Amino acid sequence: MEDFQWYFKLGLDHVLDWKAYDHVLFLMVLTILYGFKDWKKVLGLVTFFTLGHTLTLALSAYNLLYIEMDLIEFLIPLTILFTALFNIIFVNKSSNYLNISFLLAFLFGLIHGLGFSSYFKILVDDFENKLFPLIEFAIGIEIAQIIVTVFILIINYLILNILKRQKRDWIIVVSSIVAGIVIPMLIERKFW
Q1: Are 106 and 47 within 8 A, CB to CB?
Q2: Which residues does 68 contact at the CB level (< 8 Å), separation at least 6?
Q3: For residues 58 and 117, what is the distance between their CA atoms, to the nearest angstrom?
Q4: Distance between CA 133 and CA 127 in Å, rounded?
């Protein structure tokens, strides 16, 4: 039980740590399109992201995958920028592109999982059974992402329903701000 709490808390801290705000930025642009009425879609997106994240952690923990950290540290803000630009481009389109959002959430989860894979591999390297720490960590990640997402949905509700701002404008503003935050990260983390 003590191990469960430790890995669960590690998963929570991985997302909720303000020094690692790239995770929150990604969740913001991933879910800014939705409201509480879309909670099933939002939960699906968050879960697909967690599945991708966990898969690369598992592959790394079992020594089946290794990618240079410089490349991953560059790709993480690139996924955030791509999602922000995706929002801006498709803001007036119908929600038919939701299927691609699920695919992107999973693929980008793979990339974000690689960002933590080296550290996680060190933590579980001596364990014969790495499955339980992976699951415990993934549960912590999922719960933390749900917490962040609920907060985003509350902000969306306040902006759109209480302050009566246009959804299109809100999506463009948030996505543009996030893009503006990650562009310097990309420049700083270039790997070539």
Answers
A1: no
A2: 191
A3: 8
A4: 9
pLDDT at residue 164, rounded to an integer: 96
Joined tokens for residue 45: 């997106």
Instruction: Return the C-alpha torsion angle 60, 6, 40, 23, nearest 10.
Output: -60
The pTM (predicted TM-score) of the whole model is 0.91
Place of tokens 């509700």: 157
CA 98/CA 189 separation, integer angstroms: 30
The residue behind tokens 């697909």 is 48
Nearest to 169 by CA among 159, 179, 178, 155: 159
**Residues 109-148 pLDDT 10s:** 999 999 988 888 888 888 888 899 999 999 999 999 999 9
